[in-house]
Amino acid sequence: MPFQTTSHFFCLVCMTSLLFVTACEDVTTGIHSDVIDAIESDSFDAGSLDDPGTSPADTTTELPDTNPIPDDVVEDGTDTSQPLPSEPSPSLYTADRIHSPITPFVAQNLHEIAELGPEMQDNVFMKVGASSTVSSRNLKCLAGNTADLGNHTDLQETLDYFMTGDAAGTTPYERTTIAAKVGHSAGWVISGAPSPLQQEVQAIAPRMGLVHYGTNDMGLGTTHESAMWNFGTNMLDLIDELIAQGIIPILIGISPRGDSVTADRWVHTYNAIIRGLAQARQVPFIDLQFATAELSGFGLAGDGVHLNTFKEDGSYQACVFTDEGLAYGFNMRNLISLQALDRVRNALVNPETIPDDDVFLTGDGSPEAPFLIPHLPFSHRGNTALSPHSNLNVYGGCDADQDESGPELMYRLDLEETTRLRAMVFDRGDVDVDLHLLDNSPTEGSCIERAHQIISGTFEAGTYLLSLDTFVSGGTPRAGEYVLVVNVCHPEDPTCD
């Protein structure tokens, strides 16, 4: 398995098919995904996929700037107040870049994933997603004679490299994927025997997989919040399924929602989750929201959901990467997708040319040296089963009586001003790790708020601790892997008032 030879903290449990726990003490209701997919096919994906329409007015709202990296973090992102790691360490993924970093640790991890599937074809990638993945404008034009790299001629070698790939008799650009369907979600692609995902893997044996879900998934619950938990389950199961076969997942974030003010308020949170899952497995993430932030209308088509496309001489040209072409959403998406393929290919072929610096996590999760949250959004994959700390049992400060006597890990959050934020924890199977927000004291009595999965609110400036503690059921600690995501709320999101 990847990660074992590098860091025990990133040992995967990816060979399991466990699902996230929806609740041990709490229950979240939802709607069956097959029903919603049928509904979403009408609401999100109606009409021609290849009619981009006109760009809507800017109905989405820009989020406030995320926390800057503190002054005691040096240029490569490392906190100078604590010793530097002596060996390559897992990288934190920040929200101020289109592509997540490929550092020595990430590059080594990509190599180890590839070694799991020697039968996979290095010059073939797969496409996994919904309507925008199905669209004929998604990468297919890179195989035609209308592609124009503009100032990005450095990508020509990679473009040509994948042109030589055999994706069941065609190029991976032109391949009509089995693993994408209009109106469907991450749960659909991993369901069935064989699932659409496995059918596509068996058909083309890809080394990499471009994965794009979230827009339809947001509608699969009674609220966008309740839909997050199954989305996290399905995405991590999908990621782990690819990794186990030696396929490198490249996760693509979702774009703003011009069709729904309410949905748009949750885009940033869903992207923080997708980024956090990519970071948890140290695989690439593409921030489509960040990439299109400066485009007119955020690069959205007339429906406010799909991306618009550059049009020249009466025809749509989604692979024109000139300045004029990159003013459109689909052109930008195709460019950054090709860039991501190029970055992964170079990491595998030329590991000595690692392009990015590290941003390290500091602290050890103990009460004396909690993990430092250096920026928002923030995410971290932890494992309470590996923690030697079990100091807090019942959080009386929150009037809680749950048995949290299992091991815990702690994080420190320094807020320089009043901040609207939400903290979320995702776990799977029998694991049950709960959230506890404390004041600047690692005691049971200092608890301000406790939750099974999510804490949202407005918090004054100051120093806080987050205790990720293990719930004990019937005398058995439910310790194990979790992914913590802490994110700034949309300024108009009422759930954080």
Description:
This protein has 497 residues and is of the alpha/beta class. The protein has two domains: 8-349, Rossmann fold, CATH 3.40.50; 371-496, Jelly Rolls (Sandwich). Helix content is 23%, strand content 18%. It contains ten helices and 17 strands. The chain has helices spanning 33-43, 104-115, 131-134, 156-163, 186-189, 196-204, 224-244, 261-281, 288-291, 329-349; strands spanning 121-129, 206-212, 248-252, 285-286, 311-312, 315-316, 371-373, 378-383, 408-415, 419-427, 433-438, 447-451, 454-459, 462-470, 472-473, 476-477, 481-488. The strands form five sheets. Strands 7-9-14-11-12 form a five-stranded mixed β-sheet, with no helix packed on it. A four-stranded parallel β-sheet has the order 1-2-3-4, sandwiched between helices. A four-stranded antiparallel β-sheet has the order 8-17-10-13, with helices on one face. Strand 11 and strand 12 form a beta hairpin. The chain is globular. The two termini are 43 Å apart. The model is unreliable at 1-86 (pLDDT under 50).
Short structural description:
By secondary structure, the protein is an alpha/beta fold. The chain has 10 helices and 17 strands.
CATH superfamily label of the largest domain: SGNH hydrolase
Most strands sheet: 5 strands, mixed
Helix content: 10-25%
The share of residues in extended strands comes to: 15-25%
- Sequence of strands across the biggest β-sheet: 7-9-14-11-12
What structural category arises from helix and sheet content? alpha/beta
Shape estimate: globular
Number of strands: 17
Assigned CATH class of the largest domain: Alpha Beta
**Residue runs with pLDDT of under 50 for 5 or more positions:** 1-86
What is the fold named in CATH at topology level of the largest domain? Rossmann fold
Number of structurally distinct domains: 2
| N-end to C-end Cα span | 43 Å
CATH architect. name of the largest domain? 3-Layer(aba) Sandwich
SSE order, one letter for each helix or strand: HHEHHHHEHEHEHEEHEEEEEEEEEEE
> What is Rg?
22 Å
Overall mean pLDDT: 86
- Total helical elements: 10
